[in-house]
Each structure stands twice: as C-alpha cells, then as structure tokens.
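Slide 14.
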Amino acid sequence: MLIENKENLGFGRANNLGFKSSIGEYVFLLNSDAYLIDNSSIPKMIQYLEQHQNVGIVGPNFIKENGSKAYAYGNLLKIRKVLSDIGLFTISNKNIDNYATYKVSDSLMPKEVGYLAAAGIIIKRSVIEKLGLFDPKFFLYFEDMELGWRYKKYGYKSIILPKATIVHLGGESTTEKSEYLQKLIVESKSYYLKKTLNVFQYHFLKIVDLSYISIKYFNRKLKLFLKN
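Slide 15: predicted structure.
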C-alpha cells in the first residue's frame, strides 16, 4: 500500500499515518534509506518479542553499505550530558560511554538500551495501542529517543539484537546540514528535555543555555573589537 502525503509531515507523523493502515501483531518500521540483506533478521526480531513480555521494541545491528557499523542506539539524554556539551560539566573517560546518545552495536548478546535508532525497528502492536507511536510534536530528530523514554517509563524495554542486521545508508533524507535542519535539532532537543525533565531542571537548563549563548556572543564581539 502506498500512502501519498500532500505535505512533508515529518518522520514521526508520517510513520504514525502508516501505522493506522497497518495490520498484524507486530509493526515493522523501515526507513527509505535502509534495506534488508537476509531472510533471518526479521524472524529473529519477532521471535525475541514473542519470548519477552516486557520488551516493547527491538532493533538490529545497523551497518553501512561497506559493512562498517552504523549508528544503532543510544543512551537517553541526561542533564549532565547537556551541561557537558556546553562545557559546564566534565564526564570522565570511564563514564562517557554511559552518556553517549549515538552508538553503534557493541555487544554480542541482546542488550537493553535507552532507545533504538528508528531506521528499522519492530514494535508490538499492543504496546503502540496502549502508549502510542511517535509524538507528533517532533518533526525530525529525538522522536525515537522520546519513544524509548516513554516506553521505559511504563515498563517496556528497548532491546538491541546484534545478530539481526539491516543496512542503513544514513542521512539520505538530510544530506545537507542546513540552518533549517540545525533549527529543527535545537527545537526537538528542547521539546524532548521539556517533556522528560522536571520543571526545575528544564528552566535551569534554559537559563544556563541562554547565559552560555550570551557569553559566546560577548566573546566573539570582544575578539572582533580587539582585532580592530
């Protein structure tokens, strides 16, 4: 079935629309820039869901066309990671892996993760009907992370299965990091943090972020002044 949209709905809303026309006990979401390379990965993913009642989503080991590993999952974004990104908190080398939000498959066995890259995941229909699919307020970016956070909040795990493999070219729909895309990333990140942090944490980050931007702007102007 081909569903033609008259406008660009964004990643999450487009998948939500497709889900409404789907059937079956399990829902397979596959990006337009991803493809299967064997007949065993999908059965392995479905079998794992069948055997584990508290698992809501499973994802594969994503690889690139050349066989190298591609982004497959990540930790949920934490306030310490945000502060680290703007230089106000230092994450030690031994702990940095626990905060990384973009990771390749690095385990030989099934592993619970914060969230799965949504380029090729399978979700139980029963879980979607109970908790929903993607939050439509996300146009692009962070919708898969929010999905993992929401499902975990209600007791459903996200599991990566390294023995299931899907090729993901990656970035085919966003080949150019334009100012518009950067704006989408910032907006989606802000909405994700607002939804997942408590009120105090969120407003603290907003104040810190505005202060950081102001300091960067002042320093840039000062350098130009001194240069002249």
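Speaker note: The radius of gyration is 19 Å.
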